[in-house]
Design a protein that fits this description.
mainly alpha, Fumarase C, Chain B, domain 1, Fumarase C, Chain A, domain 2, Ribonucleotide Reductase Protein R1, domain 1, 3 domains, two-stranded parallel ribbon, binds arginine, Argininosuccinate lyase, amino-acid biosynthesis, arginine biosynthesis, argininosuccinate lyase activity
């Protein structure tokens, strides 16, 4: 029976407790990490003289044998197993016998074990997520590189604001993702401390070497405090935050794709492979990947807030509530590992209607700031320049024309400061090229930016 306690209990557990307590349906995915921890633990038991050389060899052989059966699926949890640790101890006893197998648990607790396993698992999986985020950065960068000069309407408040390069806009979605990757790397440095050796809460009395276990499991070292090692889950919550942040970043990109794919915008055409149809409306082509990205962001935020709510107010040290850390983390990782390849494929296969975007880029008086900037270069105070440019917009609205259509007489009538030469700046290309300060949308700056983004995304 995969229960790791019972000596002081006269009777068995109520079925309702067993049902409630069982965690194998989600923590079984930690089995390989538990076995790795067991091998490291066996070695430090031997180092402390608690296993002979022969016993250590027998233990390691039994653990290898068990791992092979776990990997092949020949060994798995039974309904009577409480958690991954209990199931694997049962498997060990079956292979090594009660006398040898029963020695492994000395000096460790499920509390330090589980805290270690969840970190080890997350470190491995978040590296995968970081790679998937970089794939999306590459897809955005490739699209930017394919459209080096295409203009589009830049927006604030979703209203036309100033023209920008499509490449600039696409890269604006890449930078947050690169920061998410930075956050994952930075998180890893904090996650790289092993709680093994903390025992249940107070540390171990058996002369074990937590640094050796940490090193064998790929950690930078053991935790500094055994209470903290077993009770803290900020590392898990922080992982959930970064995953939720990535989800929110994806949802903002996704919302734009949804808008761009509408008839009204008509900025993009989705590839057939990344869009769906309607069961009743034959004409429909829906941006479901983008909508699911938007929707999954809510789920990722839920994973984070659920975990933070679990942690709030928990006294030190271990409490069983902490078992609830795993499903939100697993869900967040699973969600992004499924979502990211789909979003990357959608972005890589988007076809941009650059003609349509260019046509709309100067509309909505998006060059009014260029009029004001021209006046400033002519020596007009900006406050007055803003007024004059605003008056130009008003005149255009009255006449139902765009800024570039104002006649010489219109310009002279609005302000003596205006001359026909102002029309030279009233082009999308001129406006974009003029914004050549650091980080601006001018083609030279965007080319530099693209190179910088590419060098940041190269190699984990
Ligand atoms: N399954 C538990 C968890 O996920 C670990 C076991 C600790 N149980 C206990 N009664 N101390 O956190």
């Amino acid at each position: 029976e995969g229960r790791l306690w019972g000596g002081r209990f006269a009777g068995g557990s109520a079925d309702a407790l067993t049902e409630l307590s069982r965690s194998t349906h989600f923590d079984w995915r930690l089995a390989r990490h538990d076995l790795a921890g067991s091998r490291a633990h066996a070695r430090v038991l031997a180092g402390a003289g608690l296993l002979t050389t022969d016993q250590l060899a027998g233990m390691l052989a039994a653990l290898d044998d068990l791992e092979a059966d776990v990997v092949s699926g020949a060994f798995g949890p039974l309904p009577s197993d409480e958690d991954v640790h209990g199931a694997l101890e049962r498997g060990l006893l079956e292979r090594a016998g009660d006398d040898l197998g029963g020695r492994l648990r000395a000096g460790r607790s499920r509390n330090d074990q589980i805290a270690t396993l969840v970190r080890a698992w997350a470190r491995e999986e978040l590296r995968v997520v970081a790679g998937l985020l970089l794939d999306l950065v590459d897809a955005l960068a490739d699209q930017a590189a394919s459209h080096p000069d295409a203009p589009m309407p830049g927006r604030t408040h979703l209203q036309h604001a100033q023209p920008v390069l499509l490449a600039h806009h696409l890269l604006a979605h890449a930078w947050p993702l690169l920061r998410d990757v930075d956050r994952l790397r930075d998180w890893d440095a904090r996650a790289a401390r092993s709680p093994y050796g903390s025992g249940a809460l107070a540390g171990s009395s058996l002369g074990l070497d937590p640094a050796a276990v940490a090193a064998e499991l790929g950690f930078d070292g053991p935790v500094e405090n055994s209470l903290d090692g077993t009770a803290a889950r900020d590392v898990v919550a922080e992982a959930c935050f970064v995953l939720a942040m990535a989800g929110v970043d994806l949802s903002r990109l996704a919302e734009e794709v949804v808008l761009w794919a509408t008839k009204e915008f008509s900025f993009v055409e989705l590839d057939d492979a990344y869009s769906t149809g309607s069961s009743i409306m034959p004409q429909k082509k829906n941006p479901d990947v983008a909508e699911l990205a938007r929707g999954k962001a809510g789920r990722l935020v839920g994973d984070l807030t659920g975990l933070l709510t679990t942690l709030k107010g928990l006294p030190l040290a271990y409490n069983r509530d902490l078992q609830e850390d795993k499903e939100p983390l697993f869900d967040a990782v699973d969600t992004l590992q499924v979502l990211l390849p789909a979003v990357t494929g959608m972005v890589a296969t988007l076809r941009f209607r650059t003609g349509r975007m260019a046509e709309l880029a100067p509309q909505g008086f998006s060059l009014a700031t260029d009029v004001a900037d021209w006046l400033v270069r002519e020596g007009v105070p900006f406050r007055e320049a803003h007024e004059v440019a605003g008056a130009c917009v008003r005149r255009c609205e009255e006449r139902g024309v765009e800024l570039v259509d104002l006649t010489d007489a219109d310009l002279a009538g609005i302000s003596p400061r205006l001359s026909p030469a102002v029309r030279d700046v009233l082009t999308v290309e001129g406006s974009i090229a003029s914004r050549d300060g650091a980080g601006g949308t001018a083609p030279v700056r965007v080319a530099e930016q693209l190179a910088a983004a590419r060098s940041r995304s190269g190699g984990l």
